[in-house]
Design brief:
381 residues, globular, four-stranded antiparallel β-sheet, 0% helix, mainly beta
Length: 381
């Protein structure tokens, strides 16, 4: 069975976990909203997608619907199919597909309401991009990346351009290069490289418009290196600068900006992938560029949960992916509590999307590279 590049389990490692070297703990958010603190919310199943998917994308459109695109469907297969979720009817409807099959791609909402699809993998590493137009419900080919990429990050900057960084390219090459895609011209411009090649990393826009890059890895199998390093991209200088060390090395983790501007880092794993998955978390403080461990751990270990951490309206964070049950982080108490209900199976490389009414749509994912799901669930707090 063939998996997209960043889905291979590293089953041959005997590395031990890096022990936590930072004794500092995260301070609770002061004056955090207190309403509904006792209510952790619940998850319920709804009618499934039209196609089973993992390593796909889900993007909230300006009209309140959600575009679901591409993904890995099992065996050697990836899909070009797409569908739209309507929260008014809790149902999915197929739309015209992309020009090519792809998984491990990115999808970014543009200021004009269209969606930019970038790169990915379908047996080869892709440098192609497409635009989805919600008015016509169709994709159209646009420009090309400077480098083929899969497992990269794509981040919307405040100037409307898209930062695309890292990933894996042709010849299984791990990339430290980055580029800026301009939707106005559908062209990319190179910027300075990151300090190291990264795949399975995170990118989070800070309150000041800079972008925090955390963790990730380079190389495979016995040569794999998982990072504690982080860096910040400054759109003013188009450069990356170091920004402290994580308390523990992580890849295939999640990062969510909190309501006070700090960044919550969740789960992930070491070189052993699922056998080294974490149940811990830490918080980055932009004020002093430091990371501190969250005292209370998650209720379960999670990895392959990128894109499934959601900041809720009351300042709490839903952690939806990487396990069978979702849980909620409360920054007022620095604690995690299970949501009611479950996702019926472990959800690796699923998606979670905050809807206009404050609920969250969870879709797809797989368990151990198999049992890829067309399932869909709604979380309500």
């Amino acid at each position: 069975m063939f998996l997209p590049t960043h889905c291979f389990a590293s089953l041959f490692f005997v590395f031990s976990l890096l022990t936590l070297s930072c004794s500092a703990q995260v301070a609770p958010i002061k004056n955090a909203p207190a309403s509904s603190r006792a209510n952790v919310g619940s998850i319920s199943r709804i009618a499934g997608m039209t196609t089973r998917r993992s390593v796909h994308t889900a993007t909230l459109l300006q009209n309140g619907t959600v575009l679901i695109a591409g993904g890995y469907i099992g065996g050697d297969g990836n899909t070009s199919t797409a569908e739209v979720f309507d929260p008014g009817t809790n149902s999915f409807a197929a739309v015209a597909g992309m020009a090519v099959e792809r998984s491990s791609h990115t999808a970014t909402l543009l200021p004009n309401g269209k969606v930019l699809i970038v790169g990915g993998f379908n047996g080869q590493y892709l440098d192609t991009t497409e635009i989805y137009d919600p008015e016509t419900k169709r994709f159209s080919k646009v420009g090309r990346l400077l480098s083929p990429r899969s497992g990269h990050v794509a981040t919307a900057l405040k100037n409307g351009k898209i930062l695309i960084a890292g990933g894996v390219g042709t010849g299984w090459t791990f990339l430290k290069s980055a580029e800026i895609y301009d939707p106005a011209t559908n062209r990319s411009t190179a910027v300075a490289d990151m300090s190291v090649p990264r795949e399975s990393h995170t990118a989070t826009v800070l309150n000041d418009g800079r972008v925090l890059i955390t963790g990730g890895h380079r190389d495979r199998r016995s040569q794999m290196v998982v990072y504690t390093s982080t860096e910040i991209f400054d759109p003013e200088t188009s450069r990356f600068v170091p920004s402290g060390e994580l308390t523990i090395k992580r890849h295939k983790h999640e990062a969510v900006r909190l309501s006070d501007g700090r960044v919550l880092i969740l789960g992930g794993s070491d070189e052993r992938d699922g056998d080294g998955a974490y149940n811990n978390a830490e918080v980055y403080s932009p004020a002093d560029r430091t990371f501190a461990a969250v005292k209370n751990n998650m209720n379960t270990s999670r990895y392959k949960l990128q894109g499934t951490g959601i900041l809720l309206a009351d300042g709490r964070v839903l952690v939806a992916g990487g396990a069978r049950r979702a849980e909620v982080f409360d920054p007022a108490t620095n604690s995690f509590s299970y949501a009611e209900g479950d996702l019926e199976s472990t959800r690796l490389f699923a998606t979670a999307t905050l809807l206009s009414d404050g609920s969250v749509l969870i879709t797809g994912g797989y368990r151990d590279g198999r049992n890829i799901s067309d399932g869909a669930w709604i979380y309500r707090s």
